[in-house]
Amino acid sequence: MSEALFVVNAGSSSIKFKLYRAVGHDVALILSGALDGIGARPRLHAKDEAGNVLIDRSFAPDEVAKASDAQHAIGDWIVPCLAEHELIGVGHRVVHGGPHYSHPELVDDEVLRTLESFIPLAPLHQLTNLDPIRVIRARRPDLPQVACFDTAFHRGHPEIADRFALPNDLYEDGVRRYGFHGLSYEYVSGALRELAPELARGRVVICHLGSGASACGLLDGRSMESTMGFTALDGLPMGTRCGALDPGVVLHLIEQKGMSAAEVGRLLYNNSGLKGLSGISNDMRELLASDAPAAAMAIDYFTLHVAQAVAQLAVTLGGLDALVFTAGIGERSPEVRARVGARLGLLGMSLDEVANAANETWIDADGPGPSVLVIPTDEERMIALATLRLLRAGT
Fold first, then answer.
1. Is 254 in a helix, a strand, or coil?
2. Distance (Å, rounded) from C-alpha 354 to C-alpha 107?
3. Which helix (DSSP H) or strand (DSSP E) does residue 23 occupy?
4. How far from each other are the two terminal CA atoms of the chain, in whole angstroms?
5. Cα separation, 384 vs 324, whole angstroms
6. Per-residue model confidence as pLDDT tens digits over 246-281
């Protein structure tokens, strides 16, 4: 029997999962899938490494109403798939590791309690990240589980990038800029290092553009600053999240509009961003296909703020050698990339229209400006490798 690792990447409305074979200190994909539409139109689907469909099943909304229900459904289906494998551990994406965790951690009672204390810092994600851990602990208490943190990649930030202009006692109490999407940035920076080692040692900005969006400035592969801060609300506008916001707006909503903290939270997390700007959708594909003026405005707002973030991070880095696009929008939307690139002409940036339209890896035009690349991310592979390293170190 071959050793296998199961990876769970739980989001607010879906759980992505992958099963890997452990090959020495590397991993090879066995199958991948997701249970999406949790609470609305739940659907479990999976394929093997060759792309053959293994399951495609829909559920009634009340059968899979929350993340724990989804994990039970996935667990019931995956058990027979493990007949030829010895499952040695499960790796999880956990959005917030707080000030405590800068590396993957084996989950025990103390770690779980600490991670639960960070739920208010990432209410859309942290709870749904932890629910599958609890389900698997109940079903297989003997099975090691490893938490891999989206904040960990940024924990080596210079202090100046970690601070808010607030009193020091708040900083010491954990009110600081954590940064997120770290698993994605770690994977993409590693892929860039293999693709272009000299470029990877330089001044690089990676734009992780999806339903959640952020940008990160790297120097020699290390995170120097990120657009996201204390929570996953900060920085770029996102599908339903507002991005950077004058804190006075929050005070106004509470003091003048009489909104409760919970109501403000729902507004900023669930009804803002592209959805709030357009009044149409949080999906960039729908906005690009729409001829509504509000859709055009939302796209312009998004691309402007992405370009501004790249320029800001270039200041932090002292220049820009390469810009990398990744995640759903970054990997698959030539129009968004073209609009961002056009706004960055002041940095000497120029995109090759044909290469960009074809979603090629190198999309910059010949010239002296920064290199521009498209590199697909793979957070699950990073989780699998980190889980395997930790388990191997403990044996």
1. helix
2. 47
3. strand 14-23
4. 18
5. 23
6. 999 999 999 999 999 999 999 999 999 999 999 999
Structure tokens at 286: 């729908």
Q: How far apart are CA 135 and CA 261, in angstroms?
A: 30
Residues annotated as catalytic (active site), given as ranges: 150
Residue 353 CA to residue 334 CA, distance in Å, equals 9
Residues 242, 277 contacting (CB under 8 angstroms): no
- Please write the tens of the pLDDT for every residue from 86-111: 999 999 999 888 888 889 999 999 99
Alpha carbon distance 162, 177 (integer Å): 5
Extract the tokens encoding 137: 């602990």
Q: How far apart are CA 114 and CA 324, in angstroms?
A: 34
pLDDT at 5 over 70: yes
* Structure tokens, 34: 């997701």
Q: Which of 97-101, 155-159, 351-355 has the highest mean pLDDT?
A: 351-355
pLDDT value of position 39:
85
Q: How far apart are CA 228 and CA 122, in angstroms?
A: 12
Hey, what are 224's tokens? Answer: 């120097």
C-alpha span between 240 and 238 (Å, rounded) = 6
As a whole number of angstroms, the distance between CA 21 and CA 327 comes to 25
Overall pTM > 0.70: yes
Rounded to whole angstroms, how far apart are CA atoms 44 and 280? 27
Which residue type does 338 have?
A
Quote the pLDDT of residue 395.
53
Average pLDDT, the chain: 93
- Residue 23's φ and ψ, nearest 5 degrees, are -125, 90
Radius of gyration of the chain (CA): 21
Identify the CA nearest to 124 among candidates 231, 254, 263.
Answer: 231
Cβ neighbour number for residue 139 with a 10 Å cutoff? 13
State pLDDT tens for residues 61-70: 999 988 888 8
Digit-coded pLDDT (tens) for 242-255: 999 999 999 999 99
- Residue 247, phi-psi category: left (phi > 0), alpha (psi -120 to 50), beta (remainder): alpha
| 3-state class (DSSP) for residue 285 | helix
Q: Which residues have CB under 8 Å from 390's CB, separation 6+?
A: 104, 106, 146
Q: Which helix H or strand E contains 107, and what residues bound it?
A: none
Residues in the chain: 395
DSSP state string for 126-150: HHHHHHHHHHHHHH-TTS-EEEEES
- Per-residue model confidence (pLDDT) at position 121: 78
